[in-house]
Design brief:
By secondary structure, the protein is of the alpha/beta class. The protein is built from eleven helices and nine strands. It has helices spanning about 15-25, 40-45, 65-75, 100-130, 150-170, 190-195, 210-220, 230-240, 255-265, 265-275, 295, and strands spanning about 5-10, 30-35, 55, 85, 90, 135-140, 175-185, 245-250, 305. The chain has a seven-stranded parallel β-sheet with strand order 3-2-1-4-6-7-8, with helices on both faces. Strands 5-9 form a two-stranded antiparallel sheet. The longest helix has 29 residues, at about 100-130.
């Protein structure tokens, strides 16, 4: 798929999505950059002055918003639609699964999974009818390995991996390629926001001491972080390659970590990752601790997925 393309990017107000939108627009592509925060979209449009970047509001969890976006893009493209869809919108819900409320878990899936599928269904038909197109889903290395307290978020990425595998096989005969981007630790505001509640669990929570250790673990991970240009390059390769790979890991060195984890017995990986959760067991009888408040259990900010 060489040459100028019409590209839709969700979650383009920050991080991975924003960097990709600017880069692709500056390369001459027509880019529809979407997100919920109008102020951030306005700033993005100003920074992209002189390019073919256009901004549109989108809430992937709102069916009417998705329908309105599809209609507006049809109008602006004379019914053509888009050549490439980059599903990037998402956020991270962090906390022990025991203390994450059902409403928060559903919201995590509404954004990261059901929202992704809603946008895909809105734009896939015209790709199929034309006989070519790309659906690029931004997953995470967390879709192939699971970390303590990120089970809610990681599980949505596992879902995206499976959905993408199925979709890739279903639409390949129509000339539509489905690609997964699997970022490792990327320098964006995602980690800071997703881990906001690490410092504020309920004091009576049996996991309180582990939250403090999680901060140290996060700081260690952040030292290995790379810039969003790594994910942008992967997205660009997925767009331009005649026969794109099913998965692009960014940065590439993370691929070796995933390979190692796949080879190790589960007991060994549990032991290695479990060092994070070696806090002091709660004492003082069987009284059930008071769960943290909604604000302490999760973050509620739209972020670029990774």
């Amino acid at each position: 798929m060489k040459g100028s393309r019409t590209i839709l990017i969700t979650g383009a107000t920050a991080g991975i999505g924003r960097h990709a939108a600017l880069h692709l627009a500056r390369k001459g592509h027509r880019v529809f950059a979407t997100g919920r925060r109008q102020a951030a979209l306005d700033t993005l449009r100003e920074e992209a002055a002189g390019t073919r970047l256009e901004t549109l509001t989108l809430d992937v969890t709102d069916e009417r918003s998705v329908t309105a976006l599809a209609a507006e893009i049809d109008k602006r493209t004379d019914g053509y639609g888009v050549d490439v869809l980059v599903n990037n919108a998402g956020y991270g819900c962090f906390g022990p699964l025991e203390e994450i409320a059902d409403a928060d878990l559903r919201r995590q899936y509404d954004t990261n999974v059901f929202g992704l599928m809603a946008v895909t269904r809105a734009f896939l038909p015209k790709m199929r009818e034309r006989g070519y197109g790309r659906v690029i889903n931004v997953s995470s290395v967390g879709g192939r390995m699971t970390f303590p307290f990120m089970g809610a978020y990681n599980s949505t990425k596992y879902a995206i991996e499976s959905l993408s595998d199925a979709l890739r096989r279903e639409v390949a005969r129509f000339g539509v390629r489905v690609v997964l981007i699997e970022p490792g630790v990327i320098k964006t505001e995602f980690a800071d926001r997703a881990l906001d509640l690490v410092g504020g669990p309920a004091p009576t929570s049996p996991y309180a001491d582990v939250y403090a250790r999680s901060l140290e673990f996060n700081e260690l991970f952040q030292r290995t972080a790379v810039g969003p240009e790594h994910t942008t390059r992967a997205i660009e390769r997925a767009i331009e390659a005649r026969w794109p790979k099913a998965r692009y890991v960014a940065p590439y060195r993370v691929k070796f970590v995933l390979a190692l984890v796949a080879l190790l017995p589960t007991r060994w990986t549990d032991a290695l990752i479990g060092t994070l959760t070696r806090g002091s067991p709660s004492r003082g009888g069987p009284q059930r601790p008071t769960p943290p408040s909604t604000n302490e259990r999760r973050t509620a900010t739209e972020l670029s997925a990774n």
